[in-house]
C-alpha cells in the first residue's frame, strides 16, 4: 500500500497524553484546561437539549450564531463580515484549516509556513499535492525575517499560513509584521490562512493583530477560530472560518461534503453565551494570572524563558541542565520525574540542537504548583 503521507505518524499530543497517563505524570503537554468551563455555558447546553435542538443545523452553521460572530468581529476588528456569506461554523479550527487548504491548494502550489509550526498545516498541504516552503523563526524571540519571506515568494506561491498568538512559541505578531505581509503580497493573488485560535489569550496589554484589521490583507484571507480555546471546551470541537464571499463560496463547497454541518445544540448554547462579551474579554487577565503564577513558581529553576506573550503555552530552554535532544529529555522527564511536556523540535524537523520544551499553563493552581516543584528540582 503506498501511503499518501509516508512521513506522518501519530501526533505528539496523542503520544504525550498517553504516556502521561501511563506514567501517572502531571500533564502539561497537550493543550487543554484541567478545569471545567463556566457552569453557565454548561447550563445553556442543557437548555439547548431541552429545547429540542437535535437535528441538523444549516450547512454554514446556525444563522443566529453567525450574526453574533459578525457583530463580534466588527466590534473587535472594525471589519464587517456577512453572516450569510462570509462565516462558516466548523468542527473545530482543525476542520476549518483542513477545509481551507483543501479548497484552494492544487498540485505544485507553494505554501509558505513559518517554523516551528502547529502540526496540522503541512500534512493537509501535502495531501493536496502542495509544497510547504518553510521559513524558520529562531529562538528565543522567534521573529519572522520578512526579507527571507520576500525571497521565497514566486509565481507558484499560492498561500501563506500565519498563526498569532503562536503555538508553540507563545509569541505574537506585531502590527509591523502584518504591514510587511501586506506590502509583500499587495497586488498578488496570494491567499493568507490566518490561524487566530488564541485571539483572546494575549498578555501585558498587547493587542491581537488580526488580519481582519488590515482590509487589504483581509480581502485575500481565510481566518480560523476555535471555541474550544476560548471557552475551555476543547472536547466540543467547534470553531469557525471567516473569509470574503468569493473565498467562502469555495470553502463551503468542500465543507458541505467533509462534514456538511456541525453539532447543533452546542452552537445554540455558544450563541447565547456570546451575548455577554465579558465571557471572552476576561480571558486575557484570567490566563495572564496563570502564566505569572507559573513563572513565579519556576523562577528559581535552571530553565530559561521569556514570558509568553499569548496562547496558554510557555516555552523554556533547559540548555543549562542537559544537552540531550528535547525528545529524549521530554521522555525522561515523564518517566523519571512524572512531568509531561512537548519537545518543541516536533514542530520543526529541521531544528538543530535547541533544548526547548513547551509547557501548557491552562491548569489549576494546584497542578501548576506540583509541576513547578518538579521543574525546580531538576
Ligand atoms: N490551531 C492552533 C494553533 C492550535 O493550537 C489548535 C489546537 N488547539 C488548533 C488550531 C485546532 O483547534 P481545534 O481544537 O478547535 O480544532
Ligand atoms: N492544540 C493543542 C496543542 O497544541 C492540541 C490539539 C490536539 O491534540 N490535536 O497542544
TrEMBL record:
Domain of life from the UniProt record: Bacteria
Keywords associated with the record: Aminotransferase, Transferase
Entry EC no(s): 2.6.1.88
Protein known as: Methionine aminotransferase
Organism: Mesonia oceanica
Gene giving rise to this polypeptide: ybdL
